[in-house]
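From the methods appendix. Each design record in this collection lists the tokenized structure first, followed by the designed amino acid sequence. Records were kept in a plain field format so they could be parsed without special tools. The example shown here is representative of the layout used throughout.

RECORD:
FOLD TOKENS (238 positions):
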């Protein structure tokens, strides 16, 4: 069984190394076409985007299993997510990876170690953001949220940053402060400064090397920061 889309072709070499290779290799069945193994053409997208997509599929499976099994709703959410953001053919490939990972006993520490060594910090934070989105997709599940926090730590994301990303999926005013790393005692000048620093830090351009699909997803995180600032600004005016 091979991959049918185009997104993952550039990631085959990356995926066949390390623990994630055990998943991808079993899907390939040892057969990779010459087209797939050929070096990318000049100007082609970096393989970092496809490798991040494979890593996301595996980590999504790990989160889905955190409460003992993946629910039908979670599997449907993952499929819709992949189709919407990567196209139907690439989604089919990613769902193969996701389903195989669901059926395997995952060494999360080893998987996260491979991801940590392959992707830069902004890319790992982006993966964390997407995992929190999955955990909150069909109602916040404490075990899944804890699983995402655990993955974040293993990916080398700081506890402060993990809390900040998690807070983006809660809409109340208290979490708006958490998103910005601010306190109620801070002046609006201080809060505005924190907002500008984060807006620069989490700008979608920071993950543009992952490809347009991930850049669009990064816009969601960027908008969450904007919403947090607007929530606080509005509350201070009332």
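DESIGN:
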């Amino acid at each position: 069984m091979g991959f049918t889309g185009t997104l993952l072709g550039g990631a085959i070499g990356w995926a066949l190394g390390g623990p994630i290779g055990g998943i991808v290799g079993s899907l390939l069945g040892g057969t990779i076409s010459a087209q797939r193994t050929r070096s990318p053409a000049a100007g082609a997208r970096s393989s970092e985007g496809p490798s991040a997509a494979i890593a996301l599929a595996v980590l999504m499976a790990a989160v889905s299993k955190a409460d003992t099994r993946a629910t039908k709703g979670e599997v449907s959410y993952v499929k819709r997510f992949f189709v919407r953001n990567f196209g139907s053919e690439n989604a089919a490939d990613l769902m193969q990876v996701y389903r195989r990972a669901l059926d395997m006993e995952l060494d999360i520490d080893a998987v996260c170690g491979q991801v940590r060594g392959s992707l830069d910090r902004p890319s790992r934070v982006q993966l964390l953001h997407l995992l929190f989105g999955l955990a909150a997709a069909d109602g916040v599940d404490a075990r899944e949220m804890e699983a995402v926090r655990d993955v974040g730590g293993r990916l080398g994301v700081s506890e402060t940053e993990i809390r900040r990303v998690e807070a983006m999926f809660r809409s109340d005013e208290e979490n708006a402060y958490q998103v910005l790393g601010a306190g109620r005692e801070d002046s609006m000048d201080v809060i505005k400064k924190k907002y500008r620093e984060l807006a620069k830090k989490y700008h979608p351009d920071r993950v543009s090397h992952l490809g347009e699909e991930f850049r669009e997803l990064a816009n969601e995180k960027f908008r969450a920061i904007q919403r947090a600032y607007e929530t606080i600004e509005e509350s201070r005016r009332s």
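APPENDIX NOTE: Residues 180 and 193 are 10 Å apart (CA to CA).
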